[in-house]
Amino acid sequence: QVQLVESGGGLVQPGGSLRLSCTASLRAFRSYAMAWFRRAPGREREFVAATSSSGSSVYSADSLKGRFTISRDNDKVSVYLQMNSLKPEDTAVYYCAAAVRVGYSDYDYNCWGQGTQVTVSS
Questions:
Q1: What is the DSSP letter of 12?
Q2: What per-residue confidence (pLDDT) applies to 15?
Q3: Contact predicate 32/53, CB 8 Å
Q4: pLDDT, tens digit (0-9, with 9 covering 90-100), for 53-91
Q5: Interior/surface letters 46-79, b for 16+ CB within 10 angstroms, e for the rest
Q6: How far apart are CA 122 and CA 32, in angstroms?
Q7: Which residues have CB under 8 Å from 51's CB, separation 6+?
Q8: Could you tell me if 78 and 22 are in contact, meaning their C-beta atoms sit under 8 angstroms apart?
Q9: CB–CB of 86/18 below 8 Å?
Q10: What is the end-to-end Cα distance of the chain in Å, rounded?
């Protein structure tokens, strides 16, 4: 059974930074595309960023480009989300997900972590 475990969430002030981590118990981790999604209170889950299996291609939501960066370390079976210049509207539960290929919809992903809460507030 594949497991994805997110960490690194917490409370941060506006303008601050956080780095989320997701560690996978995936035997073939380096074969999977990985992504981050988020769900804000009262909203649908939305795409944040994704990376190809090798990490050579990365994709970000247009509204988050320049602030959020996805990366992965296949040797550490981990994927990361660096979040800078955080805003209160970035408050959400952030989820890590795995799929056989990169997609922009949560329907494209069949393996999910439990999520980690990020709260941006002064």
A1: E
A2: 98
A3: yes
A4: 999 999 999 999 899 999 999 999 999 999 999 999 999
A5: bbbbbbebebeeebbbeebeeebbbebeeeebbb
A6: 37
A7: 33, 34, 35, 57, 58, 59, 70, 71, 72, 79, 102
A8: yes
A9: yes
A10: 40
